[in-house]
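SAMPLE LOG
Freezer: B-3
Tube label: C17
Construct: single chain, 148 aa
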Amino acid sequence: MNDAVLALLRCYPQIYLACHVEHVRARSNAHALSARDASLLSHLDRDRGIHAAELAQHMQIRPSTLSAALTRLEKLGYVERETDAHDRRVHRLRLSARGEIAMAESSVLDPQRAAALLARLAPTEREHALEGLALLARAARELAKETP
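STRUCTURE (predicted):
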């Protein structure tokens, strides 16, 4: 195993454990989100829309299961659907402003602990760390597209 893989395997759990809180119980939080709902929201963002089929594949859930969850989350105002610019038959999913708040407050990562973690870094270090995380997240999305 190469050094980069070992570094990822060593560092990721340290970050996760430092910022982890108890798992969300089914619809018991202020935002009426189950653990699956919270996980689904964490895979969306405000800027980059995603196709439902791509999200279902990445999360390894049936499209029908995803569709029911998305309908509910859309009714709660957490998810927005927009018509794809290249194919009007397809919709892209985005996290709404309200959904971003619900996601942050329902995450298995504590926002205050994450803020404290980031505060320990110099501004340049913080910027590099977040850029690195964004790169890893992008690679994870690409890997999920290739993995059945």
